[in-house]
Design brief:
6-stranded parallel sheet, binds adenosine-5'-diphosphate, Rossmann fold, binds magnesium ion, 603 residues, 42% helix, binds ligand TPW, alpha/beta
Length: 603
């Protein structure tokens, strides 16, 4: 495991002397001759970090190199890990986070001290908010100097800064503690409610040496990192009682249900119970969106009319209007059952009459046992009301999709992409923007679990390229990234990364010349554009050509269809710049109501 230490130390006398020093300083009671003999069997902080990750089945690192972690990336690559090097840490962090969501293993993001760390921190915070397991590993400067605030290179008390943004944060000062620290970080990231973990590795740690055999012994292979958490039988019985009393039941599947990888059990519960279900954005495809029990096309009806709602891995946050208000039925007319691994989630917004705390696989299996001979399917009235609403809404949508307007509007472009995903259901769809997000989510049916990755709980822009890269790296599947022109800009430089690793990513930029719309005017008549506008008719397709990728500019649905199919067939990195009517979008997409209104009218 530590063979490379010998090579690096003998190839570099200075480093050899340093590691011997460190060996002696770190407690080896040897004279120089004995130490020299012993150095054959030395390991150091660099190797211990890598060995600890590999021992725990972690094979990929997403990051940006620099002091003090440049050699960590190099040695990791030499030791057989995949090291995906980004242009900005936020995107490496987003990649790590979504790798965690896709694999249930913590994704690793590696950053340099202070500014690199802070760039990665947004992604760590976003991962924690979304319950994606990741570990941000950051190099940091010398503790003695940082703590006395003596102005070290990239000085910052990173551990303190990270703490509010993650589930757990650890710092390692001694090489012999690396094994236990990595183990704790892994457990913290994936057990219970998954989330982000910070691991602070000060520069000095990396070249601390220790006996290789002792180093190996110090590593910990985490056993059962995310233990099953069984629900209490009484909680299951209570939930079943409430469900059985329902006249108009509804199941809401959230991205926790997608994360849990309990796909067959969830499908069995939905189908055996006959209860209509609503998938949250990243739970689309858990059951195919074309499933007869999907109530997605009757969303507003079911949220208002259901009398019992069972949440599976979905929070009653703003995305579900906090479980109250106009979106929902009159107060007191609806009962909530909630399945979640996090007990504190219960009653977060409204009363949960049947909390079922545990992991989704175990909870849903337990409920499924109760759907037996005594079970009666939901009433015909409820199902037919939903179906009638679905039919009406789907007919409305399909007429919009058929319209071949020129210039293209969102629907005519999305109609093409909807067919492409239907034909290529194993492709992963990444989606961000405002109109580009909200309309794509409604129009494009998903057919398989964990194929739709988007802005999540925060509605954050900038996840696009990081998510696309990790989706391609982790799954080997083709990726279709549907990006608003603004959204794309947040991570656009990573097209170089996509080209460098030759990843099968096809980016479609919905170019409406701006944020929400491309038609705002600057009322002063000044030459500055309105704050929501970009360079008119920008040629984003030229960007990817600079790095050897394929750039295509399209203005019609037919051109779009040909270009996407060619990209998906070839697997070559492609950016399709799709001209969208600048007047087609609406303010903030579906959530314009969240904008505060000014009460003052200036003349
Ligand atoms: P969505 O945005 O799709 O509605 P949320 O992110 O709001 O979903 O909710 C996901 C929920 O799933 C979180 O409350 C989280 O605690 C829960 N969760 C994640 N993984 C599991 C799991 N394996 N078992 C049970 N609950 C889980
Ligand atoms: C990190 C605010 C929400 S949506 C959006 C912004 C800037 C871009 C919408 O324009 P786009 O889509 O992508 O061109 P479209 O189709 O409507 O024209 N900074 C962060 N996150 C968010 N959410 C914002 C700003 C925002
Ligand atoms: Mg736009």
């Amino acid at each position: 495991m530590s063979a490379a230490v010998k090579e690096t130390t003998t190839a570099d006398d200075t480093r050899k002397a340093k590691s011997l020093d460190a060996y002696i300083v770190s407690g080896g009671d040897f004279d120089i001759a004995t130490a020299e003999a012993a150095q054959q069997e030395l390991t150091d902080g660099f190797h211990l970090v890598i060995d600890a990750l590999k021992l725990n089945g972690i094979t990929t690192i997403y990051g940006v190199p620099g002091i003090p972690i440049t050699d960590l990336g190099r040695i990791a690559q030499a030791e057989g890990m995949r090291v995906i090097s980004f242009r900005h840490e936020q995107h490496a962090g987003n990649a790590a986070a979504i790798a965690g969501f896709l694999t249930k293993k913590p994704g690793i993001c590696l950053t340099v001290s202070a500014p690199g760390f802070l760039n990665g921190l947004t992604a760590l915070a976003n991962a924690t908010t979304n319950c994606f397991p990741m570990i941000l590993i950051s190099g940091s400067s010398e503790r003695e100097i940082v703590d006395l605030q003596q102005g070290d290179y990239e000085e910052m008390d990173q551990l303190a800064v990270a703490k509010p943004f993650c589930k757990a944060a650890f710092r390692v000062l001694h090489a012999q503690d690396i094994g236990i620290a990595v183990a704790r970080a892994i457990r913290a990231a994936v057990s219970g409610r998954p989330g982000g973990v910070y691991l602070d590795l000060p520069a000095k740690l990396f070249s601390q040496a220790m006996n290789a055999a002792a180093g190996t012994k110090s590593l910990v292979k985490v056993i059962d990192p995310a233990p099953a958490q069984l629900p209490a039988p009484a909680a299951v019985a209570r939930a079943l009682d409430v469900l059985k009393s329902a006249k108009r039941p509804l199941i809401i599947l959230g991205k926790g249900a997608a994360y849990a990888q309990a796909d067959d059990t969830i499908r069995a519960l939905v189908e055996k119970s006959g209860i209509p279900y609503l998938p949250m954005s990243m739970a689309k495809g858990l059951l195919p969106d074309t499933h007869p029990q999907s109530a997605a096309a009757a969303r507003s009806l079911v949220l208002k009319e259901a009398d019992v709602v069972m949440l599976i891995g979905a929070r009653l946050n703003w995305l579900l209007s906090h479980g109250k208000g106009n979106t929902w039925g009159a107060p007191g007319t609806q009962k909530f059952i909630q399945i979640d691994i996090e007990p504190k989630e219960m009653d977060s917004n409204v009363e949960i009459v049947a909390p079922v705390v545990g992991d989704i696989g175990s909870c849903v299996s337990a409920l499924l046992e109760g759907v037996d001979g005594t079970w009666s399917a939901p009433s015909v009235e409820w199902i037919s009301a939903i179906n009638a609403r679905k039919e009406a809404n789907l007919a409305k949508m399909s007429s919009k999709l058929m319209k071949h307007s020129m210039p293209m509007d969102f629907h005519s472009a999305l109609g093409v992409l909807r067919t492409i995903i239907k034909e290529r259901p194993d492709a992963i769809l990444v989606n961000e923007g405002a109109n580009t997000l909200d309309l794509a989510r409604g129009v494009i049916d998903m057919y398989q679990p964990r194929k739709r990755l988007d802005v999540g709980t925060w509605g954050v822009m900038g996840i696009g390229m990081g998510f696309s890269i990790a989706a391609a790296v982790e799954t080997g599947k083709p990726v279709l990234a549907i990006e608003g022109d603004s959204a794309f800009g947040f991570s656009g430089m990573e097209v170089e990364t996509i080209c460098r690793y030759n990843l099968p990513v096809c980016i479609v930029v919905f170019n409406n010349n701006g944020i929400y719309r491309g038609t705002d005017i600057n009322p002063t008549g000044d030459s500055d554009l309105a704050p929501t506008l970009f360079v008119k008719d920008a040629r984003y397709d030229k960007m990817i050509e600079a790095f050897g990728g394929v750039g295509v500019h399209v203005t019609t649905p037919d051109e779009l269809q040909r270009a996407v199919n060619a990209a998906m067939d070839s697997g070559r990195p492609t950016l399709i710049n799709a001209a969208i009517d600048p007047a087609a979008g609406s303010e903030s997409g579906n959530i314009g109501n969240l904008n505060p209104q000014s009460l003052v009218r200036k003349k």
